[in-house]
Amino acid sequence: MSTRTVTLHGRIMLRAEIELLTGLHIGGAAGGLEIGGLDKPVIRNPRTNQPYIPGSSLKGKLRSLMEKVYGAPQTFKVNEGVYIHVPTNEDEYRRFYQIAGVFGTLPNHHSLTISVPTRLIMRDVPLTAKSESELRQLRTDLPYTEIKWEAAIDRVTSAATPRQIERVPAGAVFGPAEAVYSLYVGNGETLADVINLFGSLYEAFTYLEDDYLGGMGSRGNGQVRLRHVQIFARRLQAGQYDELTLVMEAPTLPELKRDELLIKLQEYFAAA
User: For the residues of the chain, what is the DSSP string, one character each?
Assistant: First the structure.
């Protein structure tokens, strides 16, 4: 986009349910230290006590996966020991457009003069009503969750240090998950360019299904699958939104063909 100009042409929304194929741990703050207490509790809605998937966790995971796939240099320090990719110049922006074009840039970061707002909004994802009811009726260790015991083993003495990990059980379903992609256009881009960039978000979700969400994924946690996937769109014309329109849907993400989807989105916005 031009350095200080953006134009919003509409939005594309991906909605889906997130099914847990293995237990999910996304950490929350411990209520207090106590003997026998949980080492790693999950995050919960303080009003309902139900676990949920924070939009920040989803968005951060999608970004991390895209940075790894494309080998993007880690140029920005978030906090001690944590770095992410933020383009430092125009060449980096162009090379890693699939990332910066979706997640945005920082103004005046090193020699970069291109200012791009994030095009992606990820909503928090609650339990579905059906899963909430099923988990409430089960005799789980804690409301809606299970306790998984793990042990760190000393490699010399074989002494074990046990710990308790709280997880939402496999089979639970969260939804609707909603990713909102804003069609901001500028900086020599065309609307068609920005629509095609939505394919990068689709791509990131395919990587998520092969990876994990939340913590301790290398030890079996966090395998997820998207289901009941729907793509909606609406145009913004003369300051007024058109009706939200269902563009395409599929039972699973692999059945939602990326190339066909992008063609349908191009046709929808070209009809304005």
Answer: -BTTB-EEEEEEEEEEEEEESS-B--B---S---TT--SBPBPB-TTT--BEE-HHHHHHHHHHHHHHHHT----EEEETTEEE---SSHHHHHHTHHHHHHH---TTSTT--------EEE--EEBPHHHHHHHHHS--SBTTBEEEEEEEE-TTT--EEEEEEEEBPTT-EEEEEEEEEEEEE-TT--HHHHHHHHHHHHHHHHHHHHS--SS-GGGT---EEEEEEEEEEEEEETTEEPPPEEEEEEEESTTS-HHHHHHHHHHHHHT-
